[in-house]
């Protein structure tokens, strides 16, 4: 299942992404927003991110005006690796190298045609693992040490 969310700035583009997922027969759950009425992007980044972090959703897609607010908010949820992508190469590489599990898009920055290609690329690309798994582990398993530094656990 793909968890979807947007604010008013991303509402139109998310509609196109819903249609694309429907055409491909991919299951999704839309966490809103459900209109172009002004709203706050963290209110939609959070439930989508929690769905991904809990394993309810395999991936999340979040759309706001720039994608920046959504990516900042999503990355606050432990276990979420949200990537703001404006090109297909970044979308492929963030799956292959970062095992990104949430794609953020900026509807006021990236045209719908490109955004759909970016989403398709993100969803079909696997994680390379290997040395990248070690690096991802260093991102996700940080701790505050007694000397006041934040470093990867067990390193
Ligand atoms: C809403 O005006 C806008 O700030 C929002 O969609 C997003 O771009 C925030 O990062």
CATH topology, by name, is Ribose 5-phosphate Isomerase B, Chain: A
From the 3D coordinates, which CATH architecture would you assign?
3-Layer(aba) Sandwich
- Please identify the structural class as seen in this structure: alpha/beta
- In terms of quaternary structure, what is this? single chain
Q: Which CATH top level class fits? A: Alpha Beta
Ligand inventory reads:
D-ribose
Mean pLDDT: 95
Number of helices: 6
Order of helices and strands: EHEHEHEHEHHEE
Uncertain segments are: none
> What is the spatial order of strands in the main beta sheet?
2-1-3-5-4
Largest sheet: 5 strands, parallel
CATH fourth-tier homologous superfamily: Sugar-phosphate isomerase, RpiB/LacA/LacB
Distance between the termini: 34 Å
Strand-residue fraction? 15-25%
Helix coverage percent of residues? 40-55%
* Number of beta-strand segments: 7
Tally the structural domains. Answer: 1
Radius of gyration, rounded?
Answer: 16 Å
Shape: globular
How does the SSE layout of this entry go?
Layout: E1 2-6, H1 11-23, E2 28-30, H2 42-54, E3 59-64, H3 68-74, E4 82-84, H4 88-96, E5 102-106, H5 112-124, H6 131-140, E6 142-144, E7 150-152
Helix pairs in contact: 1-5, 2-3, 4-5
The structure holds D-ribose (RB5).
């Amino acid at each position: 299942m793909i968890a979807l969310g947007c604010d008013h700035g991303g509402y139109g583009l998310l509609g196109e992404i819903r249609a694309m997922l429907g055409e491909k027969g991919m299951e999704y759950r839309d966490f809103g927003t459900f209109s172009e009425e002004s709203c706050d992007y963290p209110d939609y980044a959070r439930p989508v991110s929690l769905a991904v972090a809990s394993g309810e959703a395999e991936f999340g897609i979040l759309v706001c005006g720039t994608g920046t607010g959504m990516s900042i908010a999503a990355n606050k949820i432990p276990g979420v690796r949200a990537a703001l992508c404006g090109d297909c190469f970044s979308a492929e590489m963030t799956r292959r190298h970062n095992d990104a599990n949430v794609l953020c898009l900026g509807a006021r920055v990236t045209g719908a045609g490109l955004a759909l290609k970016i989403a398709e690329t993100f969803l079909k690309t696997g994680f390379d693992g290997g040395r990248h798994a070690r690096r991802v582990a260093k991102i996700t398993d940080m701790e505050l040490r007694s000397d006041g530094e934040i470093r990867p656990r067990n390193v």
